[in-house]
Amino acid sequence: MGGIDVKKSLLFISLVLIVGVIIGTSVFASSKAPTVISFWFPGADKVNDQYFSNVGKEFEKLHPDIKVEVTVLPSSTQDIDTKLNAALLSGTFPDVLSAYLAQIGTRGPKGDFLSLNSDVNGWSDKKDIYESAIQMGTYKGKILGVGFYPAPEILTYRKDFFKEAGLNPEKPPATWEELADCAKKLTKLDANGNVIRAGLDIPALNSSVFFRPIMRQNGSQVINEKKGVPAFTDQSSIEAWEYIFKLKNENVSIPYNYQKKEDIPFVKGNSAMSYLQTTQILKMIQNDPTMKDKLGFAPVLTHKKKVAFCGFRLFTIGGKTKHKKESWEFIEFLMSKDQMTRRFKVLNMPVVRTSLEEDFIASDPVLNKAQLEYIKYGKGAENVPWLNSAMAYLHTAYEEVYNNKKTPVQALKDAENNLQKDLQAMKNE
Fold it and tell me: CA 352, CA 372: separation in Å to the nearest integer?
């Protein structure tokens, strides 16, 4: 009897130990720390920052095994690049970054962003996403980012000023010739011949967003991305600049710095036509609700080609991330219909899904229809690593012609020669 009791006791102890191991393993598994990914985005305003700060928490509820650490960056590209450079040195580069389009060209070649080709090509929602949202983030065949925030520059005009000038407010300019004709007719001068109300805003400084689409409308590439060379001095580029400065010399504009948004003559009521971002348009209406009926939006101008300027922000994954799978899951969540719908309702952010077009247009038929056209025909920054140098030389050239120091031909020739010298020096390093 005693032997049987001992066997029973040993069997009981073994069962207890087995159960304990099973329970212990289960407890250990359930208490496993979640994978932590970092998400950095440029700050803008309270509503924008709140949305992107909270979106990580929403994702965590659906993915309890992933934790998202969110960082709000400065808004300027220069300040962001400073922080990203420091992060590269310290090994703290973000897993997911909301990047500006220009950074695809400047940082992509350095390996700062991971290739997303396999993820995007295997994405079940890919067919619903605008092709431009993917093409914008592609550098030499590698998809380095997925566009989520298009920022078109829309040719906006004052309907009341059109009526005052005897122009049909429902027929805005659609070609170069019509734009020049309207600009002249809409300009108001004082007794001394000074412009007191511009017909068209032609910036004096920081003007690349203004002149690049006009160059492209005439067939210029501005920069040949495939060959990786500038295309400043071809005939189409020269003709585009001659058109711009002929119109400027007709005395139809008021000088201003394009980067100082608050000083844009149109925003101050001192111009009849201007290229504006959606945020500026909405702010004008917010400040003066009567503007809702006074503002009109011209179609994308057509010359040799129909092209607009459209910037983009893109979701990217850091090149040295250890959590690609989790990072891509987060991007898929950010690009979902629900989140995209929320962004256009809360942040007035245009959609990049075909299936959301009708809802987006219905929320503001006139403005949002115009936005989608400018996005459709839009092209943003060129994806080359030396973009900043190219734009610096073009800005200098533009200002030299604006101030009558050089002709368009000479200024563009000098800009391209100087850039070519820099590119050669880079090759020799």
Answer: 9
Distance between CA atoms of residues 285 and 316, nearest Å? 33
Separation between Cα atoms, residue 265 and residue 273, nearest integer Å: 9
**Neighbour tally for 400: CB within 10 Å:** 18
As a three-state string, the secondary structure of 213-230 is: HHHHHCCCCEEECCCCEE
* Residue that is written with structure tokens 């803008």 in the block: 44
pTM of the complete model: 0.87
In terms of Cβ atoms closer than 10 Å to its own Cβ (0-12, 13-18, 19+), residue 283 is: middle
Q: Is the separation of the CB atoms in 243 and 237 below 8 Å?
A: no
pLDDT per residue rounded down to tens, the chain (429 residues): 445 565 555 555 555 455 454 555 444 444 579 999 999 999 988 999 999 999 999 999 999 999 999 999 998 888 999 999 999 999 999 999 999 999 999 999 999 999 999 999 999 999 999 999 999 999 999 999 999 999 999 999 999 999 999 999 999 999 999 999 999 999 999 999 999 999 999 999 999 999 999 999 999 999 999 899 999 999 999 999 999 999 999 999 999 999 898 899 999 999 999 999 999 999 999 999 999 999 999 999 999 999 999 999 999 999 999 999 999 999 999 999 999 999 999 999 999 999 999 999 999 999 999 999 999 999 999 999 999 999 999 999 999 999 999 999 999 999 999 999 999 998 887
**35-151+311-379 CATH pick, 3.20.170.30, 3.40.50.2300, 3.20.20.140, 3.40.190.10:** 3.40.190.10
Q: Where are the domains of the chain?
A: 35-151+311-379, 152-310+384-428
Place of tokens 């300009």: 187
CB 293 within 8 A of CB 159: yes
DSSP H or E run through 321: none
Q: How far is CA 122 from CA 117, 185, 325, in A?
A: 8, 54, 13
Instruction: Give 153's DSSP letter.
Output: E
At 95 the three-state DSSP class reads coil
Determine how many CB atoms are found less than 10 A away from the CB of residue 42.
20
Distances (CA, A) of 217 to 124, 154, 377, 408, 413: 35, 15, 11, 17, 20
Q: Is 229 exposed, middle or buried (0-12, 13-18, 19+ CB in 10 A)?
A: middle
Phi, psi (degrees; rounded to nearest 5) at 13: -65, -40
* The CATH number fitting domain 152-310+384-428, selected from 3.30.70.120, 3.40.190.10, 3.40.50.2300, 3.40.50.720: 3.40.190.10
